[in-house]
Amino acid sequence: MSETHDDLSIELKHLIIETLELEDVALGDIDPDAPLFGEGLGLDSIDALELGLALQKRFGIKLDAEAEETRRHFSSLNALKALVETRRVD
Amino acid sequence: MPFSLHLEDWRGWIADEEVHNPAPSHRISAQLGSTLPAMLRRRLDDAGRATCDILEALDPNADFPLVHASRHGDTTHTLEMLEALARGEPISPTRFSMSVHNAVLGVHSISRKHHRPMQALGACGDEFDAILHEAKGYLVEGHRAVVAVLSEAPLPSAYQGHTEHPGIACAVGIRLTLDRGRRLMASDPVGAAHPTPLEVMSWLNGDAPFLDGRHRWQLGAE
């Protein structure tokens, strides 16, 4: 659990909740290893586009919506965190 | 007379509880959007949530064709997108996906697994008469009832004074049949008017003896 309380994890949880207007979701509801899309948190394809835009605005990360690796980066909060740690340009 | 429509039931909502709300039997829950799953509810503003609640109250088993009319739609978010484009910024994919006039009906359809006909319309102020025309068509085709909602979201300040608007977010829904409920009677209006949801509610409440749209509408005895 401890690794989920670092600043970047919390920042990403805030980003997800605010960007996707998840008004009924609290920080603790986002399991860092659970799927963000479909099962788990239950986000949909529109959310994926919205999240991609937010990552671009906040961290300068540009993703190819069609690429298979994008699917992997969006598979969980921890996967997203790994992406931001390696690709952020801010 | 071209119409023989009947009003079986109705529901209304006004964003301000201090304003003359409908009688309790015609209100929806103050907890807006309580009929929607949270993941769908988040995509709608209050007028959209109220519209879905009214549709659910009047068509609880998803049996009837649905009509959603709004003169202006969600102008707040449409204007936000236009302003973002003017600044050269990318627009929100979510906002863009919800910027069509039938977005509220789409959300309702997913939420309630509604598979009957549904349509969204805007008619430059003639929405009430347009609703009745569409309802008549469905009823004559053999549907037992039609549920229609007329709603307006708040108008951004930039548009105020440039168009007719009720001045507050509001929505009213009616369930129409060919033979059950109070008969709707049409005559020629003294002057054609553009009834908003507020005026429709006042009339249904009994506060006004008739409603002027393209026709003058009156309700027969209960």
From TrEMBL, chain A:
<dbReference type="InterPro" id="IPR009081">
    <property type="entry name" value="PP-bd_ACP"/>
</dbReference>
<protein>
    <submittedName>
        <fullName>Acyl carrier protein</fullName>
    </submittedName>
</protein>
<dbReference type="InterPro" id="IPR036736">
    <property type="entry name" value="ACP-like_sf"/>
</dbReference>
<feature type="domain" description="Carrier">
    <location>
        <begin position="6"/>
        <end position="88"/>
    </location>
</feature>
<dbReference type="Pfam" id="PF00550">
    <property type="entry name" value="PP-binding"/>
</dbReference>
Automatic annotation (TrEMBL), chain B:
<feature type="domain" description="Beta-ketoacyl synthase-like N-terminal">
    <location>
        <begin position="32"/>
        <end position="187"/>
    </location>
</feature>
<dbReference type="InterPro" id="IPR014030">
    <property type="entry name" value="Ketoacyl_synth_N"/>
</dbReference>
<dbReference type="Pfam" id="PF13723">
    <property type="entry name" value="Ketoacyl-synt_2"/>
</dbReference>
<protein>
    <recommendedName>
        <fullName>Beta-ketoacyl synthase-like N-terminal domain-containing protein</fullName>
    </recommendedName>
</protein>
